[in-house]
Amino acid sequence: MFNVCPKCGEYSVEKTIDPAGPFAICPFCHHPHPFLQQPLFIITGSSGAGKTTLTLELVSRLRECVVMESDILWGENQGQGNDDNNVWLRIAKNIGQAGRPVVLCGTALPEQLENSPERRYFSKLHYLALVCDDELLEERLKRRPEWRESGSEEFIQWMVQFNRWLKNHANTTTPPMTLYDTSHPSIGETTQNVMQWIRERLSPTPNS
Q1: Which candidate, 4, 43, 80, 158, has a CA 20 to 30 Å from the CA of 206?
Q2: Does the predicted model carry a pTM greater than 0.90?
Q3: Per its UniProt record, what Gene3D superfamilies does this chain match (predicted)?
């Protein structure tokens, strides 16, 4: 585990990060552990906005990143709020040590991730929020199989409200989120546009 100091063996998430290496400084023995400080890409949005469909396309096409969907942790430990976020950041941090940044698709907001103690191990978190027309969102949710439990009026209204919130507040979060409307582009167009968005941030211009 990356949080275990290779010198003294003590466990700590909240190590001091020295950007010169970068190094993660053990708070117990002060050993400077070199690591790769990768960016992390978060693709968020309400249920029905297109995250799962997009993820399936990105997995096979965006070879320079590891693409994962947060729902793969469905189970008895899922749904613990900030604990889930810490777990996902820890997973992404460890995967990134192999040299490939992570694209994580799931419902999350900057305020839930930026304050995590695991956040310090990433160079930057980039947020892309998928949205769509309310009527289309409702239609997509009603078409889902019953086991997903997405067709109730209560759930649909909850997702529609979140979808609207993203449209109105994406540019006010810290950091702000980029909006992408999936209402009209084909899945091929959406995949290509999202890949371009990620690649532009993987290879920033000198002045960015």
Answers
A1: 43
A2: yes
A3: P-loop containing nucleotide triphosphate hydrolases
